[in-house]
Amino acid sequence: xxxxxxxxxxxxxxxxxxxxxxxxxxxxxxxxxxxxxxxxxxxxxxxxxxxxxxxxxxxxxxxxxxxxxxxxxxxxxxxxxxxxxxxxxxxxxxxxxxxxxxxxxxxxxxxxxxxxxxxxxxxxxxxxxxxxxxxxxxxxxxxxxxxxxxxxxxxxxxxxxxxxxxxxxxxxxxxxxxxxxxxxxxxxxxxxxxxxxxxxxxxxxxxxxxxxxxxxxxxxxxxxxxxxxxxxxxxxxxxxxxxxxxxxxxxxxxxxxxxxxxxxxxxxxxxxxxxxxxxxxxxxxxxxxxxxxxxxxxxxxxxxxxxxxxxxxxxxxxxxxxxxxxxxxxxxxxxxxxxxxxxxxxxxxxxxxxxxxxxxxxxxxxxxxxxxxxxxxxxxxxxxxxxxxxxxxxxxxxxxxxxxxxxxxxxxxxxxxxxxxxxxxxxxxxxxxxxxxxxxxxxxxxxxxxxxxxxxxxxxxxxxxxxxxxxxxxxxxxxxxxx
Length: 483
Description:
By secondary structure, the protein is of the alpha/beta class. Helices cover about 40% and strands about 20% of the residues.
């Protein structure tokens, strides 16, 4: 939908917003947009500025909806989602390889400093991450003809969060059988087989888990970590020291001798594992002790990035709720004698925003008080929600006649050329002329009804720009029958 993005880019107000971003003005407030129009707006800003863009939302559900809309606006190598749930229970459970894979790919994208959009809920921004230098160290590049030491590779893979098994079956596993090393990266559809001649890589190939047959031979490959909590053996003594100090401080504030004894026994179990270089199962509760200088997503991103905040007020509300829930969880866990006091579980969102000096664009439906937000420029983009036609072509025809009279660019979205052709015939049956813009870079014209290949979750009208975008949702959703 490059042509549609170009149509929006040509609007005077949009060009002014982009100029302000490129001039590095501190922040801007954009009011009026809602739903899928925000995804379109974000993609236009990213394309025009060529900046790595963080699109921050208040929760994962909303992040996923924006991501789904952006899928038809950006190439796959320019769009990423960082799926972080705001529930503490999700941090304590074992997340699926797919979700971990998405987060690892997102971090890799940020470090590339390439343009594109990362959609992230505020819970993801709060996550404590390893120092960037440590993450880069465990991006393993392997190539055919290189020498590798199998035992050293094994240690590296374990540090990277991979689990050793007799035979790889699921992402995040690896196996070593003589001169054959199999690794199943969490970012890949298929595992990779490394065949050695002594210590030299003789061949690299993808293979099928079920049949063990090779798929494709490759020259080189990069293995990314399978976890976001990277801990080298050198880190463990410092973690032990911090945990011992935290335990001593916690015990000083306890009066009940029985509780003191119970806490010491529980924490000592974890300390023994840590002294042996092993992460306890519930290591998340000690995440604030893991790194002397913990990083956030912003440390991984390009210094030339753009930050777009979708409904800043709701982001703030979620952040405050997360702070409260974390404090309550720590209090409850401490009452069960399972943790120590005052361990940091996440970054403070407001502190992160104050520290990062890059252009920020705040999106909100209405202009109202936005907390401590200070903006250098405010732009209101007039937006109307698209009406529901429910398959009633006569109603659509009346609306199109009105748009044509006012020289609108009318865009109907269809998921494929085949679907657009069928929809075009339906319009023709009701004497509505239309054209199909089959090429991605065809720019919609004013005074014309045209089909563009793509999809949004909802359509909308931009009256000042004289643009109407109709999705299949508005066209064909049936009316709910009254009971």
